[in-house]
TrEMBL record:
GO molecular function: hydrolase activity
Top-level enzyme category: hydrolase
Species name: Rhizobium lusitanum
InterPro entries the UniProt entry points to: PIN-like_dom_sf (IPR029060), PIN_dom (IPR002716)
Alphabetized UniProt keyword annotations: Hydrolase
UniProt-listed Enzyme Commission number(s): 3.1.-.-
Superkingdom assignment: Bacteria
Pfam family, one: PIN
Gene3D superfamilies in the record: 5'-nuclease
Protein name: Ribonuclease VapC
PIN domain location: 1-127
């Protein structure tokens, strides 16, 4: 399962849907995210919890370790998958209107052949497998 920043920050700030995400993660044999997702989560957590970015980054690192979520590199091939994703689902005429960040999230999940766990309803309008 590839976990995006929205889920990481929801769980770390105890949002209403945090328990549901935790339950879904328990079923996964593999849990992973990217450095970009971890950084994005740290920025969101920093703002929400009034922590410095460095403190929020350390909190994310600890959370990833506790939840057994692997931090995997963004593979070079993901750049090209993201470009194809943007062409297909990007901010043009497609109803998903994926942002650049969304396209990289999609690309990483696709590259690692993992279902995507996200709060965003945008991915519902794509062909990515959802967790």
């Amino acid at each position: 399962m590839f976990i995006d920043a929205s889920v990481l920050s929801a769980m770390m700030t105890n949002e209403e849907d945090a328990r549901g995400f935790a339950n879904r993660m328990q079923l996964a044999t593999a849990r992973m995210t990217s450095p970009a997702e971890a950084m994005h989560a740290a920025i969101e957590i920093s703002a929400t919890l009034a922590l410095s970015p460095a403190e929020a980054g350390e909190a994310v690192r600890t959370f990833l370790q506790l939840m057994n979520i692997q931090l995997l590199a963004v593979p070079p091939r993901a750049a090209f998958i993201a470009a194809e994703t943007y062409e297909r689902y990007g901010q043009g005429d497609h109803p998903a209107r994926l942002s650049l960040d969304d396209c990289m999230t999609y690309a990483c999940a696709r590259y690692y052949r993992q279902p995507l766990l996200s709060k965003s309803g945008r991915f519902d309008q794509t062909d990515i497998e959802l967790a």
